């Protein structure tokens, strides 16, 4: 019963859309109807600016961290902890408070991965920064992070295999959420950061 309550709490936490709240609070409208239409940090950057985007990035990341921390504090294993984080990601992507229309869960997934397995997330993050700096495609960097972090979890054996497998599934979910970005990247018309 305790784990069920944790999962529900994680989903409800994940459903809080900070990009929506901040954009509305600044009287800019519904973030999901502005810019790219995505309720996340990158679109917040495009619509409002750097400061609000950083706030969204950190707060969305915290949404992924808290359930993992909570599960581990309650003595659940890493697979259960990552599953709790996944519930927050699901909440971010399909938020109950906003008609189940949310973001792509990148920052929240980063939060889950950082707490679950810091070194792989750190290494992947380093390469992602280089990729975004070189190409200015945030979506490409996000996709690389979602692939590389679970791969490094397996290679470095920082967490149990079943937990790394679950993390891989979360990565696949994020890549699937980026399917339109992937299509635009392949066609050469993906929007670059700063444009």
How is this fold's topology laid out?
Blueprint: H1 2-14, H2 18-25, H3 41-47, H4 50-73, H5 78-93, H6 106-116, H7 118-135, H8 138-156, H9 161-177, H10 179-187
Helix pairs in contact: 1-4, 1-5, 2-4, 3-4, 4-5, 4-6, 5-6, 5-9, 6-7, 6-8, 7-8, 8-9
Transmembrane segments: 43-62, 69-90, 110-130, 137-156, 162-178
Function: Catalyzes the transfer of an acyl group from acyl-phosphate (acyl-PO(4)) to glycerol-3-phosphate (G3P) to form lysophosphatidic acid (LPA). This enzyme utilizes acyl-phosphate as fatty acyl donor, but not acyl-CoA or acyl-ACP.
Family: Belongs to the PlsY family.
Description:
The chain is mainly alpha-helical and 195 residues long. It has one domain. Helix content is 73%, strand content 0%. Helix 4 crosses helix 6 (106-116) and helix 6 runs antiparallel to helix 7 (118-135). The mean pLDDT is 93.
Keywords for this structure?
10 helices; globular; 73% helix; single chain; mainly alpha
Task: Provide a quick synopsis of the model.
With 195 residues, the chain is mostly helical.
Alpha carbon gap, first and last residue: 48 Å
Structural class designation: mainly alpha
- Compute the number of helices: 10
Q: What is the succession of H and E elements? A: HHHHHHHHHH
Q: Report mean pLDDT, rounded to a whole number.
A: 93
What's the Cα radius of gyration? 16 Å
Overall spatial form: globular
**Residue windows where pLDDT falls under 50 for at least 5 positions:** none
Number of domains: 1
The description of the largest β-sheet is: none
**Hey, roughly how much beta strand do the residues contain?**
under 5%
Number of strands: 0
Helix content: over 70%
């Amino acid at each position: 019963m305790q784990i069920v309550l944790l999962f529900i709490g994680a989903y409800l936490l994940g459903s809080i859309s900070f990009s929506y709240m901040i954009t509305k609070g600044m009287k800019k409208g519904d973030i999901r109807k502005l810019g790219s239409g995505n309720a996340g940090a990158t679109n917040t950057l495009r619509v409002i600016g750097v400061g609000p985007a950083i706030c969204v990035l950190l707060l969305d990341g915290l949404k992924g961290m808290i359930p993992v921390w909570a599960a581990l504090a309650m003595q659940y294993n890493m697979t259960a902890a990552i599953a709790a984080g996944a519930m927050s990601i699901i909440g971010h992507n399909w938020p109950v408070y906003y008609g189940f229309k949310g973001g792509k869960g990148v920052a929240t997934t980063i939060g889950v991965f950082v707490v679950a397995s810091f070194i792989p997330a750190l290494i992947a993050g380093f390469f992602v920064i280089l990729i975004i700096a070189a190409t200015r495609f945030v979506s490409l960097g996000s996709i690389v992070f979602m692939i590389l972090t679970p791969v490094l979890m397996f290679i470095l054996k920082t967490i149990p295999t079943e937990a790394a497998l679950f993390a891989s599934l979360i990565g696949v979910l994020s890549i699937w959420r980026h399917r339109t970005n992937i299509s635009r990247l392949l066609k050469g018309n993906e929007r670059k950061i700063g444009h």
